[in-house]
Amino acid sequence: MPIRITQGMMYARALGDVQSGLFRYSQLQQEVASGRRINRPSDDPAAALRILPLRSDLRELGQLNSNVSLARETLNTSSASLEDASTVMARVRELTTQASNGTLSGSDRESIAAEVDQLLSQVLGIANSRRGDRFLFGGTANGSPPFSLDTIGGKTFASYNGNRDSLEIDVAPGVSTALNIPGDSIFLSRDREATEFFAVGDAVQTGALPVGAGDTGVGFAELDIQFGGLTADAPATVTAGTGPQEVVGPVDYVFTSGPDTLSINGGPAVPIPATDQAFVTADGTTMTLTVTGVATPATGTFTSSADLTLDGGATFTNVTDFAKNSIQVNNSNDESVLYVNTENLTRTGTENVRYSGTFDVFTTLAELRDLMRNNKDMPDSEVRDRIANLLPEVDSAHNAVLDGLRELGFRSSSMDVLQNRVEGLRISRTESLSLVEDTDIAASILELQRQDLSYQTALQVSARVLQTSLQGFLR
Amino acid sequence: MSFGFGMGAGLRALNAAQLGMRTAGNNVANANTPGYSRQRIELGSALPFGVGSNLQIGTGVDVRGISRLIDEGLERRLQFQLGLVGAAELDERRYAEIEGIFGEPDNGLSTQFQDLFGSLDQLRTDPSDRALRGGMIQAGNAISQQFQLVSQRLGDLGSSTFSEVNGLVRTVNQRTSEIARLNGQIISAEANGSQANDLRDVRAQHINELGKLLDTRAIERSSGSVDLLVGGNLVVAGNRATDMRVNKDADGNTQVLVGENTSGSTIREGRIAALLRQEQAGLPSYMTRIDDLARNTIIEYNRLHSTGMPASGPFTSLTAAYGAVDGDGDGQVGDELLSQAGFAFPVEQGELYVSVTDDATGDVTRTRIDIDPTAMSLNDFAQEVSNIDHLSATIDPTGRLRISSDSGYGFDFSPRLDPNPDGGTFGGLNPTIGSRGAGPYNLSGQTFPVSFDVTTGTAAAPVVTSVTLDASDFASTAAATTDELVAAINNDLGAAGSASNVGGRLVMQSNIGGQLSELTLAESGGTVLNDLAMSTTTAAGREKAVKVGVEGTYTGAQNDQFTFEPEINGTIGQTDDLRVRVLDQDGNLVTTLNVGRGYEAGQPIELGNGIRVSFGPGDLSATDGQVFALDALNDSDTSDILVATGMNAFFLGSSAEDIAINESLLDNPDRLSAGLGGAAGDAGNLTRMIDLRDRDLNNLAENTIEDFYADLVGDIGFETAAARDTLSAQDQLLAQLEADRESISGVNIDEEMVDMLKYQQSYEAAARFIKVAQEMTSTLINLGR
User: Fold this and answer.
1) Do B742 and A6 touch (CB under 8 A)?
2) What distance in Å separates residue A14's CA from the closest CA in chain B?
3) How many domains does chain B have?
4) B395, B507: one domain
């Protein structure tokens, strides 16, 4: 039996069809209007699960993208600073060459010194350069100037108050880069070599030798070796007198009687007793001694101790055991240490110390300036020689700056690669997200038209069908 | 044969046609009345009449009754289906509301989390920028507010269940009393055997409406009345209805009761059932999950923030956000064990490292406090803190811990590395002799008391002190701990020198330093120095200390303590093959550092775990057992006591309901602990916070914060979509059943039209019949004239 149809059923069906048509129609309209297929998680829960991480990724990639830009910008600012420093160093080289020229007078060099001093403060300013409120070369301690120059005892010391930590920021997923180069690796860059002692002009060598390792001083220094008094092993009748004291180290002595004489280190015999008497050694060095009483013939060795100082006498290291091949001498000015071999030390005097390979930007400029000013009244030729000798140091200090520049340039160019990568990731994530959540506009509009058509059709058919009634025909 | 006989049959036919016409009219009139079942007139031929002996003649038509066309089974299925649809409708509405509360994917917590992580990333690019700091703190504030909003609206939805059920139950009561009233009318109307069709339709309509709200069982009595049961309890019996009521059970859940019953009725279908189910299972699970998320966000961020350091450097004073409660009611706070002190977050068995910084020298002293929450009270903890030099801790009347430092000192809980870890036992001026191994030491071979001599002073003026160890100094002589030895030795040594525990090793030092000072240890009657692995060679003092410097950030996953010792004797930067061995806390070799020839004194050497160590110029001695220890911390508060008490917290609160940003950060963004070491550009702590983004958290079922939340949102999406699908499926079933019902009970106007024509013609024919009968009668009468 065919199913019995009533008007109510037809109304209900017609209403239902029109309703569902309208619902789908409005859904499509929302999709097309908002451009998004998923406006609530329940629209497609599986897709919603993918949307949140994708959006989170996208947000992160956006941040990474701006991080990369920031990194490049910061690195470029640092590069610009180092380029300035490089220009300064090139000028310094010119001036150095000029100052080592024989035709220049002392006052000419004086005026060059003024320019070098100017360049020194300029390079200090560069080392302390900022981006915003942050010092570029101070590591993470970038709230205060990282470099300062102090002059102690006529010598200029540079100190680094920053740290060696990097300002790491993420520039790509799993990739971080340092925004900074800690300044000490550029401006205080050293490549320490064996320390040298050298004589100035015709000054006599003391016999002290550098150990050549373990030293921590920078630039030039002067090791003063002074007489440090006689030690306990001296004969009871012999004391140090007032007068020149040039002999340090073991002293061989010969007492003769009748006539009573004393001779030291093979030098001529001198009658005793004597007060503040100069005794000359076979080497021609002088020792002033006071000898009391009468001698009994004897030979032996006593020790004339040495006081070693690096800081102009502020602190001394007293040497009594000259057999030691490594005596630690401290410099209280910069807390540095110099190891001295005293095995062959025989006389007092000054050793000029050159801590090879330690000439950083600041040290080089300061030493150049001081040399040009010639505070120590060295002969012209000596000054020229020493300035000329600093030329390689100027180059190596310049190279340190160039190394820094290269490093920054390398990092900056790798930022370009990273930015491309981040951008690529962003595009692919955006595409994925779009695939998941965006409306396929073409398909949706087609569908919208289809729905429109079927909605219209439903309306028309309903209107036609609902009119149908027996009543109409019976009239 | 009577004259009236034919007339009677005609009249009955007229009546029947009239009734038929009226039934059709009624059907047409009620074609759109909900619940109306079409009626049909039941006709039968009237009792025949005997004519003669063997003939019977019909007497016309009898109206037997007017019946309702319904299918009882279908009606019951429809009623059941209405219950399912009611529940599905409510579920769908509720889930859509919950989905709306979370506001994903555009306006929900996911965006807030992205904002927070984004602001962290941004702040990391310039940690000292005030505006960026403020931005990060605001992001924390926004996330707190969003958590609170979600929690509050979910809570509102939950608490609305009761009033909503109450309203629905009121409707139920109206319906049941209406059904009871109709029962009464039907009983009396049908007492004569007729069918009260329209009353029954109205009653069926009420029962259906009731079915949308809850599931009932209907039992039809022979009297025509219908009894209704809800969960086994009669709510309608004949013409009496029992009201239902609503209250809350012991767990605070809404329940529906019948009459004076004390236990709730089981309701399986309908809107009320759906509401009750939501209250007990749906909503609470989302509440729990959002609370879990908030709670763990608070814990993780506070763990990091409390052990970080603001750019302003170490703290001079910190006050806890949460107080201990007076659990035992003795009027005192702070005397309860930490495990019972009522903190929102548990204190674990673990350790806290407190660093005290001397502002003038920058020297850092680190102290470790071991915490056992089942044996330590807040008072005990405060005492431990106060025992640290330059620190004092108090507990205010509200149970809040307050730590402050002496002027000129600051404190922090940062896991940063101690920049000067050598307390003088490695490169110090005083002559030192250390054990070559870490304790405990086996002294069981000694005959106690056992002595050794300690010679201090200078070669010219030696001072000899005898140290005696008694068996009673040790808990076990087979495992004499370093601390026991230190105590026993210091007791005898007096001012001449001191013993100390350096990374577990026993180290002895003379009280005077410098080149002339000396320290000699000598056995005196025993071999205890041998057992302690200490040299009997004279150790000399130094003119200049070897300065040890440490920098960097430890990147290891576990807390560790590294011990540094020279391999041979020599001068830094000078001696060939002079190396420093680095051992971890288990005594395993981590690395060796070349500090001999080729090493520039003072230059940092990488250890490979983020730590850089530098050694100043000077001499090292392996013979003397020189040593220093360096704490390398990943987590400086494994006890979580800072989180529990809310010291230097980032978030306050403990759940989604009360999570809030620490107000003092809002007031002063400089208090944000962005770094670990206090340098302006130090972003160490931010890095840790950023790393949190990708960390799978144990308490979040090994999910990251964002994944946990995404899962939650996904589940809500699935549930909502499922509820919507269920509703549409149930709706379709209902529509099908309604169509079936319509097919049987619905009015077809064409059909009724045909009926009307039929009855009209039948009426006309009957009238004709009467007219003919009348003419026949007239003919007969005229015959007699």
Assistant:
1) yes
2) 12
3) 3
4) no
Is there a contact between B714 and A45 if contact means CB atoms under 8 Å apart?
A: yes
Q: In the listed set B648, B674, B703, which residue is the last one of a domain according to the structure?
A: B648
Q: How confident is the model at residue B3 (pLDDT cuts 50, 70, 90)?
A: low
Mean confidence (pLDDT) of chain A: 88
Is the per-residue pLDDT at A214 higher than 60? Answer: yes
Q: Are residues B369 and B476 in the same domain?
A: no
Q: Is the pLDDT of residue A5 over 70?
A: yes
More confident residue, B282 or B608: B608
Identify all chain B residues contacting A139, using CB atoms and an 8 Å cutoff. Answer: 679, 681
Question: pLDDT of A282-316, one tens digit each?
Answer: 888 999 999 887 768 888 899 999 999 998 889 99
Distance CA A121, CA A420 (A): 40
* SS3 state at B594: strand
Specify if B9 maps to a domain. yes
Closest to B571 (Cβ–Cβ): which among A142, A179, A214? A214
Output B730 or A469, whichever has higher pLDDT: B730
Q: Which of B622, B620, B615 is nearest to B599 (CA)?
A: B615
pLDDT of res. B62: 86
Domain boundaries, chain A: 53-190+393-424, 196-356
B438 and B543 co-located in one domain: yes
B630, B306 contact by CB (below 8 A):
no
Per CATH, is A53-190+393-424 categorized as 3.40.630.30?
no
Q: Looking at the structure, tell me whether residues B465 and B390 fall in a common domain.
A: no
Give domain status of residue B374, yes or no: yes
Residues B496 and B620 in one domain: yes
Section B165-192 average pLDDT:
92
Asked if B443 and B384 sit in the same domain, the reply is no
Residues B584 and B510 in one domain: yes
Contacts of residue A317 in chain B, CB cutoff 8 Å? 543
Greatest Cα pair distance, chain A, in angstroms, is 177
Same domain? B398 vs B438: no
Is the model more confident about B212 or about B784? B212
B695 three-state secondary structure: coil
Q: Tell me: pLDDT of A334 over 90.
A: no
pLDDT of residue A473 exceeding 80, the answer is no
Q: Do A214 and B572 touch (CB under 8 A)?
A: yes
Whether residue B566 is preceded by a cis peptide bond, meaning omega within 30 degrees of 0, is no
- Using the predicted structure, report yes or no on whether residue A474 has a pLDDT greater than 80: no
| Residue A213 Cα, gap to closest chain B Cα (Å) | 5
Give A473: exposed, middle or buried? Use CB within 10 Å, 0-12, 13-18, 19+: exposed
> Tokens 């090879």 belong to which residue?
A356
Query: How confident is the model over B41-60, as a mean pLDDT?
Result: 82
Dihedral over alpha carbons B189, B190, B192, B195 (to 10 degrees): 110
Among B648, B676, B692, where does a domain finish? B648
How far is it, in rounded angstroms, from Cα B36 to Cα A145? Answer: 93
Examine residue B698 and state whether it is found in any structural domain, yes or no. no
Report whether pLDDT(B2) > 70. Answer: no
In a domain, B531, yes or no: yes
Angstrom distance (rounded) from CA A172 to CA A60: 9
Q: Tally C-beta pairs within 8 A across A and B.
A: 218
Q: What is the pLDDT of residues A439-463, one digit of tens each?
A: 888 888 888 888 888 888 888 888 8
In angstroms, rounded to a whole number, what is the distance separating the alpha carbons of residues B764 and A180? Answer: 112
Instruction: Record the tokens describing residue B203, joined without a space.
Output: 């009653």
CA–CA separation, B91 vs B102, rounded Å?
17
Full residue range of the structural domain in which residue B502 is found: 432-632
CA-to-CA distance for B584 and A39, rounded, in angstroms? Answer: 55
Rounded to 10°, the helix B72-102/B270-277 angle is 30
User: A343 CA to chain B: closest CA distance, Å?
Assistant: 17
User: What confidence tens digit (pLDDT) does each residue in B605-664 have?
Assistant: 999 899 999 999 999 999 999 999 999 999 999 999 999 999 999 999 999 999 999 999
